[in-house]
Amino acid sequence: MQTIAEINICNEQNLTDLYRRYVGDYPKFFKMDGLSKLGFVATEMLLKENQLKLEENCCIIFGGKQGCISNDKNFQTTIDKKNYFPSPSLFVYTLPNIVTGELAIRNKVYGETMFYFLESEEQLLKLTELTISKNHCKQALCGFVDYISENNYRAHLILFEN
Amino acid sequence: MTRIIATNILSPLGTTTEENFRQVLQMNSMLRLQSVKFQSVEPFYASMFNVVKCFDGYTRFESLCIKSAKDAILKAEIDATSKDTVFVLSSTKGNIELLETGEDTSLLLSAKKIAGYFGNPNQPVIVSNACVSGVCAIITAQRLLESGTYKKVVVVGCDVITRFVVAGFQSFKALSPIECKPFDADRQGLNLGEAAATMILEQRTHQPILADKSNAILLGGCVHNDANHISGPSRTGEGSYRCLRDMQDLLADNGFEKPDFICLHGTATRYNDDMESVAIQRAGYADIPVFSLKGYYGHTMGAAGILETILSVEAMNNDLMLATRGLSNAGTTEQLKLSKKHFPLKSSCFIKLLSGFGGTNAAIAICKPLQK
């Protein structure tokens, strides 16, 4: 498993600014929850800065400590007992693996997409290695992502090749 | 060779795999209209536990996981405190109802508590991959075994029905106002269900024990994305089709011409069931018997992949093809080989297929022990 490219993003960088600078033509970005925005922008930057493309069978293996907790809290506010208007557009993002689905759609990737709750990046790297060797896939995008709030997020993405 | 050495299903229908299988054979279900269950939430059909006796300091979700794992661990006679044993937990929302009181909903914390109950020293692995989580947890377990990372894996899947989840599915208009009717022309959506299910896997190089009836061999599995939509399945069944194609190759590599039956997702939503029929047709499996178990249990979310695989193993080992409860008149884009009654079917292997939000699809192939 060989590292091809790598990127780090944290809350010192504004995600909408990064979107405008690196993408600009994918309005669906504005509908995404924080975790998906983070994973999306990080992947776009990683690919553009290194002039890379994800292969059709690329595995997208993401993990983190908090999953979609920020959006879970947002959805919870829409089901307040006094003010009950559950939002379907928020509900869909109450699954942490949605970010991997967003990346699959954007990059036309039909490979494995997976989300793990993990304590450490080391565990995620180990699972990514097992995924690559088992699937005989050439490429894996591994992302350790956490989006706790607007002011507290970080992503570390690595693109591996076998 | 990855072997299933013990299983448990804890559901409103029973507390063991055997009890649950008997209930399925009798076509029973605990799907009931749940009125005034949660404040502001409209009445809904679901299969729910009446009372769950919780362990001290553990939530309802964690207690169900522990009860299910406990039974399977006892049956498997494994040492859960060994450093060679690990827990893999499958759940979509875990303790999400704790958000209402501002408590920690972390699945990491829950998994540690569950593994800790059994004195297990290893960091548990948690799979949260929407509705396909259960099958993905089994796939991850196999990878951990084949790589020699661990010798035994306890795979536990569970989700409970909360205000959060019901409100969400209702806002999606995905819940059926009646008992769900998988693959039926008049299907109106899904029912939710509560359950915990456990499967204990081990890696063996030699032949399995002859007397152990419940064991089966996990040949392998795969995951594919539709790359189409985050909340709706692909019309062409792309991800599910790719999963079936992979399983076809895997079965062929192991000397099986085709699966004897396929346990489908069959949620009874219009889109899912049509999508699966298209994927089956594309894979050339139109003549393979298929069924859905949602009419017995509802959609048990994080438990579904494990619970439905366990019941499929029982069906295979008893040479039975299971009926799709709730089905009256089949009506999907492509025709499927469904049955309203159980019938004898000599089986040696099967495929379990699942799909879910995020465009994710997963499948595993399982066979009987090679020599019985």
Describe this structure in words.
The complex is a heterodimer of chains A (162) and B (372). Chain A is α/β, with parallel strands linked by helices and 162 residues long. Chain A has a single domain, classed as Peroxisomal Thiolase, Chain A, domain 1, CATH 3.40.47.10. Chain A contains six helices and five strands; from the N terminus they run E-H-H-E-H-H-H-E-H-E-E. In chain A, strand 4 (139-149) and strand 5 form a beta hairpin. The mean pLDDT of chain A is 96. Chain B has two domains: 2-203, Thiolase/Chalcone synthase (Peroxisomal Thiolase, Chain A, domain 1, 3-Layer(aba) Sandwich), CATH 3.40.47; 216-367, Thiolase/Chalcone synthase (Peroxisomal Thiolase, Chain A, domain 1), CATH 3.40.47.10. Chain B starts with a strand and ends in a 5-residue tail after the last strand. Chain B is 29% helix and 22% strand. Chain B has 372 residues and is α/β, with parallel strands linked by helices. The longest helix of chain B has 17 residues, at 60-76. In chain B, helix 7 (270-282) links the parallel strand 10 (261-263) and strand 11. Chains A and B meet through helix 3, helix 5, strand 3 and helix 6 of A and helix 3, strand 5, helix 4, helix 5 and strand 9 of B.
What's the gist of this structure?
The complex is a heterodimer of chains A (162) and B (372). Helix content of chain A is 39%, strand content 25%. The relative contact order of chain A is 0.26.
